[in-house]
User: What shape does this take?
Amino acid sequence: MAVIGARLIFGLYLALNDHFSYHDTTSAVTVLAIYVLLGGFTAMFLYGKRSGLWLLLGLSTVLIIAHTVFAIMDLTGATDAGLHGVANNPWPTVLRYVFFLATLGFGVEVLHERPGSREGSRP
Assistant: This one.
């Protein structure tokens, strides 16, 4: 779950960067809303609702697809992303993929665990 905590802090950084560096309040609010949803779904899962994990994985999948489409459109010149462009923000782009893939990887691993089975527990 440390990945989720780091991802939420990263989302706050992105929202603040949009607001203060790019003066784009609409984008900042959108980013903040997305990461609040991710945090809410994580909290649901941590409080025992398996649906929270499904929602977290679903939203992460939608976000990684949308970000990939955005990156392709930006890099091919199909859209002018301005300061939000992938070329202008290589590290945030790389970190988005790292967090997306880590969340998906760990989430799928948790889904494949048998209920009650923990590493190091005795039968």
Remarks:
- The helical segments are 2-20, 25-46, 50-76, 90-111.
- Residues 2-111 form one domain.
